[in-house]
Design goal:
The protein has about 160 residues and is α+β, with helices and mostly antiparallel strands. It contains three helices and four strands. Helix content is about 55%, strand content about 20%.
């Protein structure tokens, strides 16, 4: 019988836990809300980086296209600012060019900058492409000289 009393007395002294305390619930809720905030920030950062990457790739393509037009002579080799693209699908994009003398007499340093116009800083993605282009005026001068030489030799 003595051992029976000991078991009963230790049984009454030990607290019986059947659920969670309020402190544990509040702590678990705080950890959960903190995790949700971190995940939301990661999602926002990822989606913003995705949009900027897509816009940067589009800016590179538009700048290469415009530089090709300048090099081919479709667009005059001149310093221009905030020119709209001719394509109506590109209404949100603008381009500009800066032309400077190159390292040699027959080269021009052409810089084409393409930027997307928008209200948010997230959508304004500029890209600048620099390239040396042969001076088209030299070709025109050479063509005029050769035609003048042909005209004087045929007389």
């Amino acid at each position: 019988p003595v051992s029976m009393n000991k078991v009963q007395s230790t049984k009454h002294n030990a607290p019986c836990r059947r659920g969670m305390t309020l402190f544990e619930v509040v702590l678990a809720l705080a950890i959960f809300l903190g995790s949700c905030a971190v995940l939301r920030q990661l999602y926002w950062t990822g989606s913003r980086a995705s949009v900027q990457g897509r816009l940067q790739a589009e800016a590179v393509i538009h700048a290469q296209s415009k530089m090709g037009e300048i090099a081919a002579g479709v667009v005059p080799v001149d310093t221009l600012a905030n020119q709209p693209f001719e394509d109506p699908d590109l209404a949100a994009w603008a381009w500009g060019s800066i032309v400077a003398p190159g390292p040699h007499i027959d080269l021009l340093a052409v810089e084409v900058t393409v930027r997307r116009q928008g209200n948010s800083s997230n959508s304004r993605v500029p890209f600048t492409l620099r390239r040396y282009v042969c001076d088209p005026q030299l070709f025109l001068d050479a063509a005029m000289q050769s035609s003048a030489a042909e005209a004087s030799s045929s007389e």
